[in-house]
Structure formats: structure tokens, C-alpha cells
What does this fold into?
Amino acid sequence: MSGLTLKGPYWVAARQHRRALWVLSAVVATGLVAVIALRSWGANLPSGRLGAPLPNHGYELLYFLMEYAGTGLLFLPLLVGAFVAGPMVARELESGTWRLALTQSTTPRAWLRSKVLVAAVVSVLGSAAVAGVYRLGWVKVPGTYQLFWADPGTYVASGPVLAAYCLLGVALGVLVGQLVRRTLVSMALTGVLTGLVLLGVGALRWSFLPVVTRTMPLEGGLIDGMPTSALMMDTGLLTSAGERLPEYACFERTHNLRVCPADMDVTGWYVDFHPVSHYWPTQLVESSLVLALAGVALYAAFRLVGARRA
It folds into this structure.
């Protein structure tokens, strides 16, 4: 497929792993067909007797597909990194077949560059296609349980951050594959490292942008203080001096959330949240951070291959 238009070591790299390219294409095509079919099945269902709606099995299946797809796509960068580290890099170093490329007027850097570029292009195009298919299905079931825009699976699977993590997997794969030079060990270690970065950056994700804070009277409800589509980060009681108290501070003394002793000087509630408009800025900030980490790993990988002689 891609090997038809490539030359030199790039053609070899694409040719060697053409089965993986076909598998990726088949997965994207199958997912697209499934999403379109379920969307069509769940749309414009007829009503039952006396106008009662019939069970919407198409919608239910689409919901479960999106739920499991979002969770599964969290592992896509790990799989990309493991594949690059093992079959693409470490296996050739372990078996010594990489020396064959050097006999064809190819330098170690050119050999590694072909691996990186082929893997990077396929990862970006593949992750973009997968994210597009996911969003096509998700727009029909947004805001439902585990499919909220800020849920980890939905957040990663529906935006450019998925491609950034896949590129990080490529960068870590070529670095670890060279350092370890053992196929299975390189695959496992790269998958673990990519997963740790995904978890670590994910834990910091909602601290990239400042939260929006709103206050409301003690008699009011928390849902009145923020949009229903927002991601709540913190809530509690507010005193006249601006001091923040835990949400259940008054309840511990009066057994009533909305009745506070006078000595506590509580004036109302506060709520910190991220509105849905923070989705794209957070995606861009996180993608930039992950790409910077990928750049560092790639720099180290090319420095390493430049020093390699055997």
C-alpha cells in the first residue's frame, strides 16, 4: 500500500510491516461501518402501541461500543510503542539484520530515520482516522455514563492528544528498542513507559488551565452554580472573609447542609469547575507537552544510533 510510492529504506520499512498497515486499515474500516450502521439503526425508530417508544437497541449497542472503544483506545499508544520497539527496531538489532541495510549505502541514522518516519506517518494518520470514527459515534451518546467529554477514555479518544501519545510511543519505541535490543523486553518496557506518561500527564491534565469559580447563597443548590456540561473540580463553603471550608463542615455540627452556626460565619457555597470550552485548549496544551517529551526521546535515540557501530 504505502510501499508503492516510497523509495529506499522507507520502502523497505513499509514493506516489512505491510501486514500491520492492512490490519490498521481493516480496523478503521470495520469501526466506521459499525458506527454508521448503529447510528442508522438507532435513528427514527417507530413507536409501539399507543405511541410508546420501542427499545432502542441500536442506541444501546452504540453506547456500549463507544464505551469500550474509548477505554480500548487508551491502550493504542502503548501498542504503537511496543510494535515500534519490538518488531521494527529491537528485532533487527537482536538478529543483526540491520547490518544488511548498512551494506546498501545506508547510514545508521538513515536506517533509523526510515523507521521513525514510516511509523510516525502511519501513527498520525491511523490515530486521526480512529479518533474521527470515534467522534462520529460519540456525538450520538455524549454526556452519558463514562462518555462525558472529560472522562479519560472519551477525552483521549476524541482529540489530537491521541496522535500525540502515539508519536510519543514511536519515540520511546525507537529509543528503548536500541537500548535493550531484545524484542519482547523492549515491547514490554516501552508499553509500561508510555502508559506511565499517559497516567502522569493525565493526572495533571485539569491543572493546565485555571478553573472557573462561582459562588451562590447557602440556600441555593450547587447545580445552580455551574453549567450541566461542566467538569466540577472542587466545592465547599465560603466565609465572609473568603476562607474556604469543607462541604460538610456545617453538617458535622447541625446535621443540615444549609444550616450553619453563626460562629462559622458562612455566607454561601463556592464551586470550581472547567467548562466544556476548556476541552480544546487543554487538548492543545497536553498535546504540546507530550510532543515535547517525544522530541526529547527522539533526540536521544538519534544520538544513540549515531554512536552505534555494531
